[in-house]
User: Fold this.
Amino acid sequence: MMDKRERIFKATEELLATQGFHGISMSLVAKEAGVAAGTIYRYFSDKDDLLRQLHLHVSLRARDAVFEGVSPDATPFEQYRQIWLNAFRLLSTDTFCLRCKAQYESSPNFEQMELDPENQQIWLRLQHFFEEGVRQGLFIALPHRILSALSLDSVMHIAQLDRLAGHALSEAEREEAVRASWRAILKPQS
Assistant:
């Protein structure tokens, strides 16, 4: 059985995904989580604190899923391919994760949450991956956030299109999408 803090996170994530930020109240979260309203305040100081910590919680879960099976001994392309496919699988199968990501990205607090040092620490491995590619002369000399936007941000949109289209991308189509997004960040050969 989930502990109370996990139940609160799960209920908040579901409410955020289905009703957006404005549809969330602490009493509704408590009801959905099956806890007393006062219990939430043992873990979170207010709604903003709950939403900030949920963002970190979801980011940790996403990071773990994205890096599952990624070997530091693999070639940069093999690492990238695994990261991309893992992200696609996560966003295709975890509808709350995809919807929450979209909600957070449209939030006026998104920039603040993304720049939170705790969140930055969560994604440090991905930052190092891109920075190392630049250092080796493999990737275009752009900041890691831009390289990520050019390559991995496409996964969210492709996962959304995949779900909306009513048919899953074939393995060949997924592999071609991986290669296309990889090519977007490669340094052109002189």
Summary: The CA atoms of residues 63 and 124 lie 10 Å apart. The two ends are 58 Å apart (CA to CA). The chain has two domains: 1-44, 48-184. The chain has a mean pLDDT of 91.
